[in-house]
């Protein structure tokens, strides 16, 4: 299975100002962008925030190509959303919604492009520790994030490979030729991941003696 980028950029080693920003501040920026997506009501403000996040991404040294890839990946979905919202609510609202989604995508890409995965997971554990009093398991939560980060690109790659194979056979318009192989591959991958975690004693709840 060949590698595929999906939604957010992979870590790019560097020593930029964005790389050196504390992880908690990066988390705060991503959370702020997510919150802003519900609060901003002017598409021009959304455009300004989007431009600022793109500037931060480029300032990190991750490169225009990675930024374009992160945006291009979600473009088909955003086109559908934008056209529907335009039809229902008008062009300004459609533009605002699409731009707000892009703001969140680029903000998440800034985080992942400038933070090693292990540091990111350690940060997730630290953020989840206050919830231990409610029965949360920070380590298990971080493990879930790690599996997700590893699984999503695989599933995206599986879909792309199946689509290419179906196109080569002239079956690109046949839903069964696309969905069934991806479903089988995904289930097999999930079982292999579960078996690997179980073999290492991970993913199972602790049972008191």
Radius of gyration: 20 Å
- Low-pLDDT segments, ≥5 res: 1-6
Q: What structural class is derived from the secondary structure elements?
A: mainly alpha
Helix percent band: over 70%
Number of helices: 8
What's the main sheet like? none
The outline comes out as globular
Secondary-structure element pattern, one letter each: HHHHHHHH
What does this structure look like?
This protein is an all-alpha fold. It folds into 2 domains: 115 residues, no CATH class; 93 residues, no CATH class. Helices cover 74% and strands 0% of the residues. The chain starts with 16 loop residues before the first helix and ends in a 10-residue tail after the last helix. Keywords: Cell membrane, Membrane, Transmembrane, Transmembrane helix.
Attribute tags:
single chain, 209 residues, mainly alpha, 2 domains, 8 helices, globular
């Amino acid at each position: 299975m060949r590698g595929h980028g999906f939604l957010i950029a992979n870590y790019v080693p560097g020593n930029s100002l964005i790389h050196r920003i504390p992880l908690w501040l990066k988390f705060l920026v991503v959370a702020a962008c997510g919150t802003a997506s519900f609060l901003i009501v002017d598409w021009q403000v959304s455009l300004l925030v989007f431009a600022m996040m793109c500037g931060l991404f480029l300032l990190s040294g991750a490169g225009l190509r990675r930024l374009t890839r992160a945006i291009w990946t979600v473009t088909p979905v955003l086109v559908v959303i934008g056209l529907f919202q335009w039809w229902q609510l008008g062009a300004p609202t459609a533009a605002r919604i699409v731009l707000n989604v892009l703001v969140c995508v680029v903000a998440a890409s800034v985080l992942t492009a400038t933070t090693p995965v292990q540091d990111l997971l350690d940060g997730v554990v630290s953020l989840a520790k206050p919830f231990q009093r409610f029965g949360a398991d920070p380590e298990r939560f971080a493990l879930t994030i790690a599996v997700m980060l590893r699984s999503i690109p695989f599933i995206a790659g599986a879909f792309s490979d199946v689509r290419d194979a179906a196109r080569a056979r002239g079956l690109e318009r046949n839903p069964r030729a696309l969905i069934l192989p991806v479903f089988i591959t995904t289930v097999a991958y999930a079982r292999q991941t579960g078996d690997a975690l179980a073999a290492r004693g991970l993913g199972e709840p602790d049972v008191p003696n």
